Amino acid sequence: MPTWAKAPDFADQPRTLARVRAGTAADRDDYLRSGLCPIQCGRCATWVLAKKNSPQHTSIQWTAEGIRQCAELAARAPGEVVETCPALQASIDAAARDGRLAMPQINGDRRAG
Ligand SMILES: [Zn+2]
């Protein structure tokens, strides 16, 4: 099981969350440029923004809605840190294999398609 660098850090990212939830085209472009890719959990259908920092390391940005929607996170006790939903992790791994989730590259992380 890979080591996740961070638990969901939505509490630290109110502005990012607000932008994600706003979901405008400009904001989408902003976070896509930063390497974040929308990924949907195959089990609970929660959407998150994921970014590959390295093959082993993925950053995940949760939205408040996603946190409520994900059964894994919803089941956590107040203050408990849940690393991530296992089904979501599998979806992210699949996206990385498919090339939907860009891997970091030396000359930036743009890729065709
Ligand atoms: Zn899930």
Question: Which class do the helix and strand fractions yield?
Answer: alpha+beta
Distance between the termini: 30 Å
Mean pLDDT over the full residue set: 73
Number of domains: 1
Order of helices and strands: HHEEEHHH
Number of helices: 5
Low-confidence stretches: none
How large, in whole angstroms, is the Cα Rg?
Answer: 14 Å
Strand percentage, roughly? 15-25%
Helix share bin = 25-40%
Structure in words:
With 113 residues, the protein is an alpha+beta fold. The protein has one domain (10-98). The protein is 36% helix and 15% strand. It contains 5 helices and 3 strands; from the N terminus they run ααβββααα. The protein has helices spanning 14-22, 25-33, 64-69, 71-74, 86-98; strands spanning 37-40, 47-54, 57-61. A 3-stranded antiparallel β-sheet has the order 1-2-3. A hairpin with a 6-residue loop joins β1 and β2. The protein starts with 13 loop residues before the first helix and ends in a 15-residue tail after the last helix. 24% of the residues are buried. Bound molecules: zinc ion.
Quick overview of this protein structure:
This protein has 113 residues and is an alpha+beta fold. 36% of the residues lie in helices and 15% in strands.
Question: Could you outline the blueprint of secondary structure elements for this entry?
Answer:
Blueprint: H1 14-22, H2 25-33, E1 37-40, E2 47-54, E3 57-61, H3 64-69, H4 71-74, H5 86-98
Antiparallel strand pairs: 1-2, 2-3
Bound molecules: zinc ion.
